[in-house]
């Protein structure tokens, strides 16, 4: 993995989003997926990425 964020690709951000999902960190997963979508040139692919990692603030459930 590179140390310069400018060198990261959409795939790198998607990998991070998947890792954050597995670690039960949905907000970080969403942020990483959004960055991946922004780095994607194909609008359909970007829409698919956004759909796969929905905004947790709109789907949040209160827990006790």
Description:
The protein is an all-alpha fold and 64 residues long. It is 56% helix and 0% strand. It is built from 3 helices and no strands. It is globular and about 40 Å long. The chain starts with 9 loop residues before the first helix and ends in a 12-residue tail after the last helix. The model has no long low-confidence stretch (mean pLDDT 88).
Chain-wise SSE layout:
Blueprint: H1 10-22, H2 26-38, H3 43-52
Outline of this structure?
The protein has 64 residues and is an all-alpha fold. Helices cover 56% and strands 0% of the residues.
Shape: globular
Mean pLDDT: 88
**Major beta sheet summary:** none
- Class computed from helices, strands and strand pairing: mainly alpha
Contiguous runs where pLDDT drops below 50 for at least 5 residues: none
Give the tally of β-strands. Answer: 0
Percent of residues in beta strands: under 5%
Distance between the termini: 39 Å
Q: From N to C, what is the helix and strand string?
A: HHH
* Tally of DSSP helical segments: 3
């Amino acid at each position: 993995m590179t140390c310069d964020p400018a060198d990261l690709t959409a795939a790198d951000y998607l990998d991070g989003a998947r890792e954050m999902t597995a670690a039960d960190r949905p907000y970080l997963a969403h942020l990483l997926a959004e960055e991946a979508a922004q780095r994607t040139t194909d609008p359909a692919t970007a829409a698919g990425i956004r759909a796969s990692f929905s905004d947790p603030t709109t789907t949040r459930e209160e827990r006790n």
